[in-house]
Write a structure and sequence with these properties.
alpha+beta; six-stranded mixed β-sheet; molybdenum cofactor biosynthesis; magnesium; Molybdopterin biosynthesis moeA protein, domain 3; 18% helix; binds adenosine monophosphate; Molybdenum Cofactor Biosythetic Enzyme, Chain A; binds magnesium ion; 391 residues; Molybdopterin biosynthesis moea protein, domain 2; 4 domains; 6 helices; metal-binding; molybdopterin molybdotransferase activity; molybdenum
């Protein structure tokens, strides 16, 4: 059996990037820019006022001006001020020609159309936002590989982009296996359970920006299972299977995958939860078969599937933990297995949640992350820094 880091290394050697897709900028936060982006415009597009106040030509030993015009934001007219004239102006209004400075209204005394400035010292050019000072037409604005935030979306929109080309998410299939499974909403007969894995995986995939997700549910029946996996492999870049990968008499996933020619990258990892995880490839397509216990599914998804999907979608450093934090309390563990513990962060420390069994989801009522406890120890002391992966 291989260690968690060996499993990561094997996946890292098999990573592939996806193609690109053009999407609305407002939908693009969380996606990665596919091509270098050059600004198609000067921003600001015109010299404009940074304040509500008066635009005028500063200097020339003058302390008073005559207000001859008012320029609201959005005004499309061009004005020219003559010597001794000022314009009433507002934040974002275009500067009139002949003016070089805006004096904030709080610093002006106005009587009728005459304004006076009496405070000493004022810099020429104050409170003016000049054309092109944020970015100029043709300047490189964002590099390929940039992760778009909401702020990045704002920047794209500010130069006039309605759409942006980003790394495309993979098309994905989720197959849940198990004759005991019912969909929430269906009646639950004795011996049956609700399928929590497919909603959970879909939710996790949605958060990664994966939009095209086929879900199917298959009973523990080998021919049906094989047919279903084959069908999903034809449609999708990534196939995630839950359940049926363990050693029970009704666990048909591994033989089905072998029958379909899926190449095994690894099977079984020295970890808790989720030891019997399978990762494989069919040409460029990923296949992950995760042990069906719900907490194993989410843990395996987070630590193996998610990094591969994120790499496909243009992200880098996909194996890095989100952060490291000191453990709040001592923890005893089994040596020889990496433990991925459901945990919650509080005041800069990480606490392990109650209910760590792999069938038990109750810890997720509180957990916001997985904390990774290393393989080669049987005890982790409070205060030790551990790797944290947010849910
Ligand atoms: P398996 O990996 O198929 O042996 O399943 C392990 C445990 O997880 C069993 O108790 C299953 O009933 C349960 N399980 C499997 N699939 C799901 C699912 N989609 N939702 C909730 N529990 C599941
Ligand atoms: Mg099963």
């Amino acid at each position: 059996m291989i260690s968690v880091n060996e499993a990561r290394k094997i996946l890292a050697e098999n990573l592939t990037r996806g193609g690109s897709v053009e999407i609305q900028v407002s939908e693009a936060a969380g996606y990665v820019v596919y091509r270098d982006i050059v600004s198609p415009a000067d921003v600001p597009a015109f010299d404009n006022s940074a304040m509500d106040g008066y635009a005028l030509a500063w200097g020339k030993n003058r302390e008073s001006w005559t207000v001859v015009v008012e320029i609201p934001a959005g005004s499309a007219k061009n004005f020219r001020l003559s010597e001794g004239e000022a314009a009433r102006i507002f934040t974002g209004s275009p500067m009139p020609e002949g003016a070089d400075t805006v004096i904030p209204q709080e610093q002006i005394e106005r009587t009728g159309n005459i304004i006076q400035y009496t405070l000493p010292g004022f810099g020429t050019g104050a409170n003016v936002r000049y054309k092109g000072t944020q970015i100029r037409t043709g300047e490189l604005m964002m590099q390929r590989g940039t992760l778009l935030s909401a702020g990045g979306v704002g920047l794209l929109a500010s130069v006039g982009f309605a759409t942006v080309e980003v790394f495309a998410p993979p098309v994905l299939s989720v197959i849940v296996t198990g004759s005991e499974l019912r969909t929430p909403g269906e009646p639950l007969t004795h011996g049956a359970i609700f399928d929590s894995n497919s909603p959970m995986l879909k939710a996790a995939l949605n958060r990664l920006g994966v939009r095209k997700i086929y879900t199917s549910r298959v009973a523990d029946n080998e021919p049906e299972l094989r047919k279903n996996i084959e069908k999903e492999l034809n449609k999708s870049d990534v196939v995630i299977i839950s359940g049926g990968i363990s050693v029970g008499d009704y666990d048909f996933v591994k033989t089905s995958l072998a029958g379909l020619g899926v190449k095994e990258l690894f099977y079984k990892v020295k970890q808790r939860p989720g030891k019997p995880i399978f990762a494989g490839k069919l040409e460029n397509k990923w296949v992950f078969a995760l042990p069906g216990n719900p907490a194993s599914v989410l843990s395996c998804f987070s630590h193996y599937v998610k990094p591969c999907i994120r790499y496909f979608m243009g992200h880098n450093n996909v194996w890095n933990p989100d952060i490291t934090l000191p453990l709040a309390e001592d923890s005893i563990k089994k040596k020889g297995l990496t433990f991925f513990m459901k945990a919650y962060t509080e005041n800069g420390k990480v606490h392990l949640a109650e209910g760590q069994q792999s069938f038990n989801l109750i810890a997720f009522s509180k957990a916001d992350c997985f904390a990774e406890l290393p393989e080669d120890v049987d005890f982790v002391e409070a205060g030790t820094s551990v790797n944290i992966y947010f849910l």
